Amino acid sequence: METGNHTFSVSEFLLLGLSEQQEQQPLLFGIFLSMYLVTVVGNLVISLAIGSDPHLHTPMYFFLANFSLTDLGLSSTTVPRMLVNIQAHTQTIPYAGCLSQIYFFLWFIGLDVFLLAVMAYDRLVAICHPLHYTLVMSPRCCVLLVVMSLLLAHSYSLTHTVLLAQLSFCADNTIPHFFCELLPLLKLSCSDTYANQCVLTYWGGALTILIPLLIVISYVRIVATIVRVPSASGKWKAFSTCSSHLSAICLFYASAVGVYFVPSSADSASKDRIAAVMYAVVTPMLNPFIYSLRNKDMKDAVGRLLSRRPLQSP
């Protein structure tokens, strides 16, 4: 670092990780390596099963394949770096590497949120307007929805990253986290963060209030349609196509609420780390199980992929 007028040109940050106790590092390495391998295998299997099974070449599974790849990217943004730091007995990350990690982390988080909204819209059209489903959710429309999600997520992450790059950092370069996250870095800055806070409020409102509100409205309409189905089997069949998506939404937003809406306490840094593990590591690991265990078509496709059994003609 170089000093000038009490402002430091930071070349690296110090990540405290999940624990500063050296004797716990081998255990943490084993746990997170196992979780990451399960995440990689689970999400790749879901994507490959959907891609290899013509029965699953539908809008719902197209969005699910993209969602699985997004979860894989989200976990890969944080966990490998943490594992390398534990193995190398170092806690530092270069300034450029920190900004890159923030960009990709926010990009995958934003993409997760937008894809969850797109998947809710897909279920809304499928259940409330089944006769128009193939017309509305055409292949072109599905691709456009995913591209729009990619661009919005890119705008979200790039805006934060560019604004963050304009800030100066003073003597303290210690991040009480296992990866570079936006809020701890803003607290470290000795520059005026008003613009960052405004953008954070704007995008935070969109991702944590507006998008969930749209999802809730979609499911209110879905439930209203399902209760009008005359047969119990018809109601169950309609609800079963939404149950996995609802579980993923609840898991994702419950962990996000733990970071941004639970009041701070004396142990808020520890709370933030635990919540970040939930939405950045645990959620991407569990989503493949959520979407495969409750879905017969998905289980059959995974079984055929793993056993390399060919599709049987109807």
UniProtKB/TrEMBL annotation:
This protein's GO cellular component annotations are: plasma membrane
Tell where it localizes. Answer: Cell membrane
Any Pfam family hit = 7tm_4
InterPro entries per record: GPCR_Rhodpsn (IPR000276), GPCR_Rhodpsn_7TM (IPR017452), Olfact_rcpt (IPR000725)
Bilayer topology reads:
Multi-pass membrane protein
Q: Where is the G-protein coupled receptors family 1 profile domain?
A: 42-291
Alphabetic keyword roster? Cell membrane, G-protein coupled receptor, Membrane, Olfaction, Receptor, Sensory transduction, Transducer, Transmembrane, Transmembrane helix
Any GO MF annotation of the entry: G protein-coupled receptor activity
Residue spans making up a coiled coil are none
- PROSITE patterns (UniProt xref): G_PROTEIN_RECEP_F1_2
What does the sequence similarity comment in the record state about its family?
Answer: Belongs to the G-protein coupled receptor 1 family.
Cited function = Putative odorant or sperm cell receptor.
Q: What is this protein called?
A: Olfactory receptor 1G1-like
Q: Which gene encodes it?
A: LOC105069965
